[in-house]
Amino acid sequence: MRVPRRRTQRSREIPSDARPGRVVETVGRRVLVRDDEGERTCFLAGHRVVIGDRVRWIEARGEGGKIVAVDERDTALVRMDHKGREQVLAANLGGLLIVVSAKEPGFRAALLDRYLVAADVFGLEAALVVTKVDLGVDDETEAQIARRAADGLQVLRTAIDPPAGIDEVAAFLAEHADEHPWALVGSSGVGKTSLVQALLPQQDVGPVGEISEFWGTGRHTTTASRLFALPGGGEIADSPGIRNFTPAGLSAQDIGLHFPRVRELVCKYRDCLHRPGEDGCVAEQELSEPLLDSYRTLLGEVLDLEERRY
Ligand SMILES: Nc1nc2c(ncn2[C@@H]2O[C@H](COP(=O)(O)OP(=O)(O)O)[C@@H](O)[C@H]2O)c(=O)[nH]1
Ligand SMILES: [Mg+2]
Ligand SMILES: [Zn+2]
Prior knowledge:
Layout: E1 19-27, E2 30-35, E3 38-44, E4 54-59, E5 65-70, E6 76-80, E7 86-91, E8 95-101, H1 109-122, E9 125-131, H2 139-150, E10 155-157, H3 166-175, E11 182-185, H4 192-199, E12 225-229, E13 235-238, H5 252-255, H6 283-286, H7 289-309
Parallel strand pairs: 3-5, 8-9, 8-11, 9-10, 11-13
Antiparallel strand pairs: 1-2, 1-4, 1-12, 2-3, 4-5, 6-7, 12-13
Helix pairs in contact: 1-7
Bound molecules: guanosine-5'-diphosphate, magnesium ion and zinc ion (ZN).
């Protein structure tokens, strides 16, 4: 699916003294814009921006900058909120570093699969980071990891104390460095901010161990979404967790196309949605239970949202 394009400036002209920059932090209606000269707080004049957006800004009397235009996005990570509204979470990303913890909280395979679907839908690369391996990885989780690795997903494993795998994450991000940053995604508490802190020991990267949820409006959390430049190269975005991530722009019929093995099913009817009890459906014979569960849960949600919208 192509991301919805947004023209740089709809009707108003961009002032000639406007300078380019990139949004590296958002907390509610306040954003931090970075360019070669540094960072400054900007306020929004009717624009909606997210982390990673390329913008034009002008000096504003005594209070940093004012954003006057938002450039077209190369990519956008968009979710559907519980009311079926599209919500852009980040712009111009190159990939998703999907973070799942071995324990506390336990491995959430279904959420991992949704982010994999999202990467596929929005044209992003993806890799898996399994955090908290110091707590041990049980057999069931190992099986879940092995299944994704067999599908070609790169898997990194980390622990903070004693440190393990941190250099591998840094090397991975350096290898994938270009103008499109990667973003850490995953539930609250899986260790995203701890990982960023381990990558940037000299810098205060934000609160660790606080349960915060991102609702898009900025009202429910003071925790920022923030883009960090790494010393070895590459960039990584950290953000508060999202309780339930549903990629936007998916029709019920599309979902199967974004799941490995589901897309290969040959059922009696070509438009089979592989719901329980469907006539001539081979999904239950052909797929593992966790994979089918992941698929059916997302399908159920999209069907619900479709029903509510039409
Ligand atoms: N045992 C263990 N705990 C960790 C590890 N990484 C993070 N934590 C703990 O997990 C909790 C949540 O971490 P945080 O980085 O805030 O997670 P975030 O919500 O994903 O940003 C904190 O109490 C961390 O100390 C790890 O590698 N091992
Ligand atoms: Mg965090
Ligand atoms: Zn079927």
